[in-house]
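User: You have something folded?
Assistant:
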Amino acid sequence: MATEAYDQLLGIQDLDVHITQLEHRYAHNPARDAVAEVESQIAVNDAATAKVVDQQRELDARQKVLDDEVAAIEKRRSEIDAKLYDGSVSATKDLLALQEEAAMLLDRQRGVEDVEIEVMELLEPVLAELNTNIDAKAKLLNTLEERNADLERELADVESQLADTVAKREAAVEPIPVDLLAAYDELRVNLGGVAVARLKGKTCDGCHMELSAVAYDRAKKEPDDAVVHCDQCGRILIR
């Protein structure tokens, strides 16, 4: 016949198992995985965006060089036009040279502008991809905010249950003899959280093995308040 303290100890064990489960749920909550998954998607998006931005910058740099060249050509053509019509150059040879230079510059400008169009055509899909990535990032950030909110609610719920269960345990251990509680706590650490088991017939309900005939006979002869251990697994037995 088990004493009241042993029955209470079994209840404490149930609380300890629940505390362990809650601690595991807090540390390995599925909501954390959901947050991590979105964060991973954001990292992939950021890496892809960085590559696209590099392409954009390279094309922008090429376009800037071409723009500067066109601007320089137009400036020189303006200078030539001014000389051709302001009367500052009168020699036929010089006028012909200026006209020839102007024609060469115009031809060069048209060639540069054709390259500019090619660069713009290359830039168009890059900018489209960049905008797509930016939109995707915005959606991912919204999803991440939602997942973090879910995680906070889930963890708050676990913390509340954990605090309540710990408080129940603190109240439950008060009437338990110190030596019995100490033996229980030590065994709980060494036996995976289950330190107390009922003796059903000759079988320990913890390891599901029968006590030896000697151990069973000795357990039966012990007083109700004696601490009896399973000779197979070492758990405290409730008789």
